[in-house]
Amino acid sequence: MFLKKSFIGKQTLSVMLVCAMVSAMGVTSAITTTATVNDKQTADASTVQTESSANTYGLKDNIQDGVILHAWEWSLSNIKDRLPQIAQAGYTAVQTTVLQHCKESTAGKANDGWWVYYQPASFALETQSGYSALGTKADLEALCTEADKYGIKVIVDVVANHLGNQKGYDLSPSIPDDIRNDSNCWHSDGFKEINYGNRYSITHGSMNGLPDLNTENSKIQTYVKNYLRECIDTGVDGFRFDAAKHISVPDEGGEYTFWSNVIPDATSYAKTKGVNLYCYGEVLNQTTEGGGPAITGYTKYMSVTENTVGNSIRTSMKKKNVQGVADGSYHKGTSPDKAVLWAESHDTYANQSENEYERSVDVSDFDINKTWGMVAARNKATALYFARTNGFATKIGTVNSTQCFSNEVIAVNKFHNKYAGQNEYVAYSGSVAYVERGTDGVVLVNVGGSSQQVSVPAHIMKDGTYKDQITGNTFTVSNKQISGQIGETGIAVVYNATENPTQPTQPTQPTTKPTEKPTTVGESYMIGDANGDNTVDMKDCVLMQKVVVGSTTLTGKSLKSADVTGDNKVSVGDIVAVMRYLVGYTNTYKIGTLVGVENPTSPTTPTTPTTPVPGNMVSLDPSAIATGTERWVLYVWKSDTDNKWINMSGSGSSFKADIPDGYTNFIVVRMNGGTTENNWNNKWNQSPDLSTSNGTVVKATGWGANGTFTVTQSK
Q1: Structural domain includes residue 607
Q2: Mean predicted confidence (pLDDT) in 642-650
Q3: How many structural domains compose the chain?
Q4: Which residue has the higher pLDDT, 651 or 442?
Q5: Is 282 one of the annotated active-site residues of the chain?
Q6: Among 407-411, 550-554, 692-696, which range has the highest average pLDDT?
Q7: Are 530 and 558 within 8 A, CB to CB?
Q8: Domain membership flag for residue 623
Q9: Is the Cβ–Cβ distance between 204 and 243 less than 8 Å?
Q10: Are both 621 and 549 inside the same structural domain?
Q11: The CATH number of the domain where 490 resides is what?
């Protein structure tokens, strides 16, 4: 408020694939298979890939079940660059700022001009390069395409209640004439300020001088519908509707059809693209003020913000009021599975209200994150983490605060995802407020400060020994008491994680290794070129079809080339992807790209030097993926029983460690910075297998699949 991919058309591709003759016991038979590929099959294949990516990071398929990062004022390209961090941090969705063409350019503007985005001029994505500091429609499509690879959903903020003014209550000249000059597009009271004691004024009056659209008008509804479809075509998964409370619901009268027409239209259209659309509305305070409807008038169509819950908890946290922090109610009476909670929002941060319950700019990150611990630990309600700008002097589009990636926030996010759907119990004792989940998890917050030894009553948590996922401290539950040490963040996220891999029996990353080692260093293959003729064409589809029906098998480079979708097998999804590529569809899987094949030293048959190998200094530059919250260590080995963990020292882009004499094989491991013990349970992710014979200068280059990161290695 002011204050997945898209698939082309319904085409069907039919290809007759005539496979080679198969001889068995002297009998020759011809296998003829017709592969019919339509949008649903392609969407299903994409859904499987997205769900697999999401499962790698523990993300939820339904946005309501996960947590949302509000990347406020981040450019679309900056969001795209940080998708690996966003996934690793446990955010199911990322929300953009408003992307509609706005009344004036924001290029080069400082963040104190944020309000311009909430004064759009039209219902269309920005296409003019250099006009918006956030980016263009093409940037949004690139973001959505990349987000699909991580299982991250993209939510776009939408302003449909009003358009921009010129000054006072005048219409901006940037508004299209078709809307600007049509009086039926505006509420007759749209140029009078809102009286919050009167519901009609709330839905028909002007908000802070912004002319109010006649959202009952079919032309306006059509404009909004088309805009939502435009966004869905780029790959968007959901929408946040600004000022939703200022648009009437059908419960108020048969003429109020905006929500009952617009959201079902967008939802149905998204389904044709394989997307389960998520929508929520900004509904501030009570809907009943001025004689308005109950909150159910809105939740029939979408989830809604429970703003006063988060605002009250945040203010109570600041005042060290533990009872106020342990607020388990929903003030509007919203059903939890329709509620959006937050620790703060862009309005509470940027509007600088005189009402301290609606102002968060003066609340520390320390208290914001503790508030996040309480709201994001809840059951069924989603929660939105607002990424601050650290003031308003920096340029729109830049990323300032990275508190959204702090250890305590990440731990809470993963707790939320792990306990989705499990019972909750909100309580307080002494200076500690806490949320128990299921029978074996709890988030505890020391409202009075930071580190503290605590013992509080357990209500639904069973006896046992548990681990704080932030510090590694041990907590026990015995005789209905939860006891342990909360760390200096003031938050403890207590449960026993099971999603991290245990130490593998072989000294290598716990991921699937290639079925066949390449024989030549520097050997490469082309994605989609199953027959190895350096061209991707229908011959490759024929060969892949033979693999699917079991008449042939592939190994080595051929197998890697044919495994277009990266799921370690050749399936119909791979054939579909190549066929779409051949007819000009979006190349999601980089088909036709040459990929180099690594030649790691296999830890199953480690190289044993015939003479002692002198110690080697490994230098690491992790800056491409580092968040500053991790520890960097080496895992070195000669055999399954002869291996060591070695701490790396340094900071920023330079870390170093000595590999002892006799060891040549190593892995660089990114450890949970909140832990001190080196083991596979505390590992966040790791490099591929490396060898000192290939060089000891290692540079991180990006994120790989299944908990790995990519590197280059040189002498």
Answers
A1: no
A2: 89
A3: 4
A4: 442
A5: yes
A6: 407-411
A7: yes
A8: yes
A9: no
A10: no
A11: 2.60.40.1180
Residue 47 CA to residue 44 CA, distance in Å, equals 5
Q: Is the pLDDT of residue 609 over 90?
A: no
Question: Does residue 488 carry a catalytic annotation?
Answer: no
**Could you tell me if 304 and 350 lie in one domain?**
yes
Distance CA 688, CA 709 (A): 8
* Beta-ladder partners of 171: 165
* 554 domain residue, yes or no: yes
- Residue 46 in this model has a pLDDT that exceeds 60: no
Write down how long the chain is: 715
Confidence band (pLDDT; 50, 70, 90) for 49? low
Q: At a CB cut-off of 8 Å and minimum separation 6, what does 421 contact?
A: 65, 379, 380
Q: Among residues of the chain, what percentage have pLDDT more than 70?
A: 84
From the list 73, 233, 242, 344, the catalytic residue is: 242
Q: What is the pLDDT of residue 596?
A: 57
Q: Which span out of 365-369, 503-507, 517-521, 561-565 was modeled with the highest average pLDDT? A: 365-369
Distance CA(76)–CA(234), nearest Å, equals 13
Q: What's the CA gap between 634 and 667, in Å, rounded?
A: 6
Is 311 domain-assigned? yes
| Catalytic annotation, pick one of 282, 327, 529, 540 | 282
Where b means 16+ CB within 10 Å and e means fewer, 305-331 reads bbbbbbbbbbbbbbeebbebbbbeebb
Within this chain, do residues 264 and 342 fall inside the same structural domain, yes or no?
Answer: yes
Residue position matching structure tokens 């776009």: 156
Structural domain for 522, as ranges = 13-44+507-596
Average pLDDT over residues 296-317: 97
Say yes or no: 109 and 193 in one domain: yes
| pLDDT tens digit sequence for 199-209 | 999 999 999 88
Report the distance separating Cα 310 and Cα 382, nearest Å. Answer: 12
Q: Which residues, listed in sequence order, are joined to residue 279 by a DSSP beta bridge?
A: 239
Ordered DSSP codes for 261-310 = HHHHHHHHHHHHTT---EEEE---S-TTTTT---THHHHTTSEEE-HHHH
- The verdict on 592 and 644 lying in the same domain is no
